[in-house]
Structures are given as C-alpha cells and as structure tokens.
Amino acid sequence: MLPLYQVLTPEGELAQDIHGSLDEATMIKMYENMVTVRMFDRKSINLQRQGRMGTYAPFEGQEASQVGSAMALAPGDWLFPTYRDHAAAIVHGQSMARVFLYWMGHMEGSLSPKDLHIMPPCVPIATQLVHAVGTAWASKLKNEQQVSLAYFGDGATSEGDFHEALNFAGVFQTPTIFFCQNNGYAISVPFSQQSASKTIAQRGAAYDIPGVRIDGNDIFAVWMTMKEAKERALAGKGPTLIEAITFRYGAHTTADDPKKYRDQEQVAEQWRRERDPIARLRTYLERSGLWNEQKENELTATAGAKIDAALAEAESYPKSRPEDMFQHVYAEPTWMASEQKNELVQPAKKEDIPA
Amino acid sequence: MKRKLTMVQAITEAMDQKMAEDSRIMLLGEDVGMNGGVFRATEDLLNKYGANRVVDTPLSEAGIIGAAIGLAMNGLIPVVEIQFLAFIYPGFEQIVSHAARMRYRTRGQYHVPLVIRTPYGAGIRGPELHSESVETFFAHVPGLKVVAPSNPYDAKGLLVSAMEDPDPVIFLEPTKLYRAFKEEVPEELYRVPIGKAKVVRQGTDLSIFAWGAMLRVAEDAAKQMEREQGVSCEVIDLRTIYPLDRDAIVQSVKKTGRALVVHEAHKTAGMGAEIISIINDEALIYLKAPVKRVTGFDVPVPQFSIEDDYLPTPARVMNGIMETLTF
Ligand SMILES: Cc1ncc(C[n+]2csc(CCOP(=O)(O)OP(=O)(O)O)c2C)c(N)n1
User: Fold this and answer.
1) Residue A6 domain-assigned?
2) Once rounded to an integer, what is the mean pLDDT over residues A75-93?
3) pLDDT at residue A343, as a whole number
4) Is the ipTM of this complex over 0.85?
5) Fewer Cβ within 10 Å of end Cβ, chain A: N or C?
C-alpha cells in the first residue's frame, strides 16, 4: 500500500519540519476557514430540518481536504466542485449566500463571481473530471498560468469518466489536479466494495500520473501536496492524482439515513475524537501560542454573523418567477419555447363552452 | 386477503415474489443491498436472498448495465436499479447499442431479458438532475420496451410482466407516486400486460391520454370539468410507452372525437407527438378539433423553487380541454 503522507499528526504535532514552507498567517487563515465552513455546514442542516432549505449534502469532517486544497489555488485557477464541495467553493470566493440559494432550489444559486472560475456543483458522478482536463488543456494551449482542480469522491473512481479523464490528462499533460476525497463511502457502499485496488492513488500509475495518498484530515499535508501538484502543473509537467483519506461524520445527504448501512455514530465519534481536522490544528496553534479561547470566541462570533448575513441575503432574494425557466436555454429563445412561455405566463382564457 | 400498499411497497413485493419463485432473478445496482435502495425499493431483499442475488455494485452505470447484459445472455434475469433516470446516461451506450440490439445482431441467437428500473419525474423538490422524464430517448430505440405505471396495483403487475418478458424493459417509476397513496394490491403474483392501456374514466366529449404521475393530474382535471362544466372526459392510462396501445387510443378517439395528451416530458419530440400521429393515421375523420398537448416545456427541468411551474397542472389541462372543445 502506498504510504500516507502526513505533516500534522492527530495529536497536533509536526511530523516533519515545515520551516519556510508554511507561514503563521496562513495557518491561522486555515483554521478560521475550517471553523467558518463547519458552522456553515451545521447551519445548513438546521435550515433543512426547519424546511427553509431543500435536501442538503453535508461535509463535516472533510474540512481540511476542501479548505486546504482550495486555499492553495490562485484566483484564476479553475474549480470543479461536486454537490459536497461548497466549502472549497466558499474558500475560493463563492459567496455563502449563493450556496444557500443553490440548496434552496434557486436557479441563480450556481452563479459565481465573474473573475473566479468556479463551476456549478456537479451532480452526475465523475463527469466534471473530463471538463477539468479540457479547461486545463486550454490554459496550457493559451499559455495561461492556471490549473484546474477537480473534486470527486471514492465512488467516482468507478465511473468510466474517471479513467477517461486520467488518460487524457496523461496523454496531453494537462495542468489538472484530481483531488479525491476518499471518505470511505459512496452512499452505502464502503470503499472495500467499490474497488479491489487498495488505494486510489496507485491508479495514477496506470496513466503514468503521479499518485499521492495523504491524510485528508491534515490540512498541512493537503496544502503542501497541492502546492507541489500546482508547481508541477505550472511547470508543464502534467497532472497529479491526490487521494485524501478522510471521513464524513454525517449522512450522505439530509435525505439519507446511514443507520441502515454503517455504524454511523460510533465511527463518526471515533474520527471526531481521534482525527478531527479542526481539533488537531487548534491544538497545534494553541501550543504555538497562535490561538486561544478569546480568539476562538471572536472567530465564532464573526463567522456566525457572516453566516447570518448570508442567510438573510439568500432569504430576501427575489422569488424565482415561472418565466425564469425559459431564460438561458439558448442564446436566442426558440419559437417553440417562446410560445410555451407565453402559454405559461398568459394561459388561454376560459370561455364558455358552446351549447 | 385485502391490504393496501404504496407503489414502492408493491414494487418490492413484485421483486420479492418473483425472486422466491425464479432463482435466475438477481438485483444489481448502487446501494440496493445493505441500504435497500435509496427509495427502499429493495428493502430486506439482501437479507432474504443473499449477496449473490442482491448485489451492491461499484458506482458505474455502464458497468452495471453492461454486466447485466452479459448475465442475461448467459441465463440469468437481472433486474437493475439506476438511482435516478438522469444518471442512466453513463450506461446509455450499453442500453441502446447492446441491450436493445442483441437479439437483432445475433439473429435471435441471444436475447437480453433485462429489467432496468429507475425513479423518474418531477414534483419531489429534488436537486438538479433528479426530476427528468426522458422516456422518449428509450421509446425511440427499437428493441426496448418502456413501461410507466401510475398506481401500486399496476406497478406490481407490470413489473412482474417485465421480469417475465424476454426483451429488455425500461421500467420507469414515478418518484412522486412512490409513497403518495396506498391502494389495494392482491397478495398473490399477478400480471398486468405490457402494451395494454387502461380506461380509468369513461367519457364522451374528449379523450385524455396520460401516464405516470400525470395520470392523476389528468384525472383531477377531468373530475373538475365534469363538476364545473358538465364536460365528460375519458381518461386513459397508457401504462406502456413502447409499444403503445394503438387500439385503445384509436377506439377512444373514435368515440369522443377530441383528444388531449398530457405528459411531463418536454413538448418537442415528446411522446405526445407520436400519439397525435397515430390519431392522424387512424382516426382523422373522427376528429372534431386538432389534438392538443399539455406538457412540460422545452427547458431543462428547473430547480425546485419553480419546479411546479414546469409541470402540467389540472388548471393547464383544463385550459387545454377548453381549447379543444371550443375549437
Ligand atoms: C452518474 C451518477 N450515478 C449515480 C448518482 C447517485 N449518487 C449521488 S452521490 C452518489 C455516491 C457518490 O459517492 P462518492 O463519489 O464516494 O462521493 P461522496 O458522496 O461520498 O462525497 C451516488 C451513487 C449520481 N449522482 N450520478
């Protein structure tokens, strides 16, 4: 089995010297981001339970993977999230209000700031990986110093698109970073039943792409691995496959009941206690004199206020109008759709039926 | 004994009873085992029939459907679950190039007795791509049968027929109806024939053709028209989308002289066009007005804040009825 790359141990100690590669401000930002997105995640689950939001896909437990990888990007880099990677999207500049809107079933929830290449959450499994090859390929052809980062789960590695993407990226040496969050499950199917290969990282070998297996709850390892992958990509040395070992504490979505297929509470409890990405960074920061209770209180207060403001913005967003569904299907509406729109907006009047 | 089941319970029972009776039947899909399917359609079947007959597969629709084709060619009867209709596309190639054509390509030497079950349709406040109804894709491909029940009784009987059918059947289960209501479902194994429509409401002024979740919308509109306007609508549940029950369509139009098709699939090139074409071919001189369609629009099914505006409603159907009657 490929070794697991770790920098910050679960006990909050450094497993290697990071002097010169990671500054204190970045570490603090990492921590703040992780705490903020965890609060966002919990808030979202509550909103769903209160009926203020639709089905939602939680990520708690995977903060280090998403935050650490997205923080390694530059503003122009391309980000291809799945339905579970809103933490990464938020860190890369997506507004929290938009993320709320998306889960509230609004068409505009997928919009992102123009100058940031944040794609809408991808719902079909693995299909976005091939796009990330394409955008990266274009960056290379246009000589733009940009990478494309695609997120996916362990289940996604069973789809044909995963293999086709890796193959293309290998052949065309595209600056693509394939970032797998191996959280051990694809809904109910454990990784051992998903794949006979022991690791996902080792699959890179089949396409002659470097495959790295890292502790996905160790934000330093995530960030350093990403940095290296980025440098390789930007130096024209092609793609990287990263397998981040992590765990999602909650259900697959708010519509799912994991009690049926895994010992959810017990395993989640154990991960929380032994490997939590936020707790270990906090331990490290506190020991280094960079964090304390007071800062923690300030952080949760500001983050809470930000989240509340985003929610207020989302909830006061104008209601979608029925005719909005006809927008943006084509550059110019077709006559068929235009007629249908009129029919929807001004239905034919009921006339009396002739005797 | 009489008991009432939801549609999803009726579907489970059909598989359970056929599995007990015929050891060639096996279930394949994502999360169908331990989890009992994300809609619980295969609940407890793993415990009952074991991991060789109820298989949690890797997340690969091409793998599931492709392997099922091989299983079917080699003596088994796979019943595949695809989690949502819009996730069938990675396996589309396998369905249209292989499942549909195997009998033809091998000149009858091999055939593919395969059932592909999948929830479909809007109105469930699902996320993006959980609400599509693209039955036309499959109806367009020779070699496939396409079925869509609208109630628990038919769901059980049609699924039993599908599992006994020597050809591949795409079995579309209206998600909105899985648990919408209960109905008396006989305990014994019975069959509802594929390819046969059902008149669910007799009428004389106009024929409405519908299937799946739209059947209830059509019925509601018919009831209201009767009550408010004294208009008598005949409502026909087509139940099978391919092959269509031409006789039932033509017979009804000959009786009423007016027709309306209701489907939630997009209008253009939807099955409504095909049904109207049959009416033109077989009953044109009986028509007193052009046949109308009330359908979903030519737009991607929108996210759920305006999903209901995409779907035909009884009000839209009633408008359609009026237009036809006042032509
Ligand atoms: C092509 C396709 N098939 C099936 C699904 C239904 N589905 C949604 S999420 C999921 C499991 C995905 O597991 P994984 O890739 O490990 O990601 P995770 O949800 O664990 O982050 C499945 C089967 C889908 N969205 N797309």
Assistant:
1) no
2) 97
3) 87
4) yes
5) C
What's the CA-to-centroid distance between A123 and ligand 1, angstroms?
8
* Section A256-280 average pLDDT: 89
Give the residue, by CA position, lying nearest to ligand 1 atom 18.
A153
Residue A252 and residue A226 share a domain: yes
Specify whether the CB–CB gap between B299 and B273 falls below 8 A: no
Judge: A106–B319 Cβ closer than 8 Å, yes or no. no
**Cα B294 to Cα B318: distance, rounded to the nearest angstrom:** 10
State the pLDDT at residue B165.
98
Q: Are residues A325 and B56, on separate chains, in Cβ contact within 8 Å?
A: no
What pTM was computed for the model? 0.94
For A155, residues 6+ apart whose C-beta sits below 8 A from its C-beta are A125, A185, A186, A187, A189, A194, B58, B59
Phi/psi of residue B320, nearest 5 degrees: -60, -40
Do A271 and A342 lie in a common domain? no
Same domain, A212 and A134: yes
Residue contact A348–B63, C-beta within 8 A: no
Task: Examine residue A18 and state whether it is found in any structural domain, yes or no.
Answer: no
Give the model's pLDDT for residue A354: 47
Report, as an integer, the average pLDDT of A249-270. Answer: 88
A257-272 average pLDDT score: 86
Query: Nearest 10 degrees: CA dihedral of A270, A274, A276, A282?
Result: 140
Band the pLDDT of A346: cuts 50, 70, 90.
Answer: confident
The pLDDT-based confidence of A350 (bands split at 50, 70, 90) is low
Q: Residue A248 forms beta bridges with which residues? A: none
Nearest CA-CA distance, residue A121 and chain B, Å: 9
What number does the ligand 1 atom closest to the CA of A126 have?
A: 1
Whether residue B87 has its Cβ less than 6 Å from ligand 1: yes
Does A314 lie in the same domain as A340?
Answer: no
State whether the beta carbon of A125 lies less than 6 angstroms from ligand 1. Answer: yes
Roughly how many angstroms between the first and final C-alpha of chain A, as a whole number? 82
pLDDT at A265: 81
Among A172, A169, A284, which residue's Cα sits nearest to residue A220? Answer: A284
Question: Ligand 1 center to residue A23 CA distance, Å?
Answer: 36
Interface of A with B in 180-219 (CB under 8 A): 186-189, 193-195
Same-domain pairing of A130 and A170: yes
Domain count, chain A: 2
Q: For ligand 1, is residue A185 a contact (CB within 6 Å)?
A: yes
Same domain, A314 and A325: no
**pLDDT tens-place string over residues A163-220:** 999 999 999 999 999 999 999 999 999 999 999 999 999 999 999 999 999 999 999 9
Q: How far apart are CA A231 and CA A240, in angstroms?
A: 11
Tokens of A91: 């860190």
Q: Give me the mean pLDDT over the A116-121 stretch.
A: 96
In a shared domain, residues A243 and A273? yes
Best B60, B263, B307, B311 member to test A by mutation, with max A CBs in 10 Å, is B60
Which CATH number does the domain housing residue A39 bear? 3.40.50.970
Domain residue limits at A29: 24-319
CA separation for the pair A212, A228 (Å, rounded): 11
Residue A308: inside a domain = yes
pLDDT at B118 over 60: yes
The alpha carbon of A126 and the centre of ligand 1 are apart by a number of angstroms equal to 8
> What is the pLDDT at residue A277?
98
Task: Respond yes or no on whether the N-terminal peptide bond of residue B243 is cis (omega within 30° of 0).
Answer: yes
CB atoms within 10 A of CB A123: 18
Shared domain check, A327 and A180:
no
A184 part of a folded domain: yes
* Atom of ligand 1 minimally distant from the CA of A159: 1
- The tens digit of pLDDT for each residue in B21-30 reads 999 999 999 9
Q: Annotated catalytic, B98? A: no
pLDDT grade, residue B202 (50/70/90)?
Answer: very high
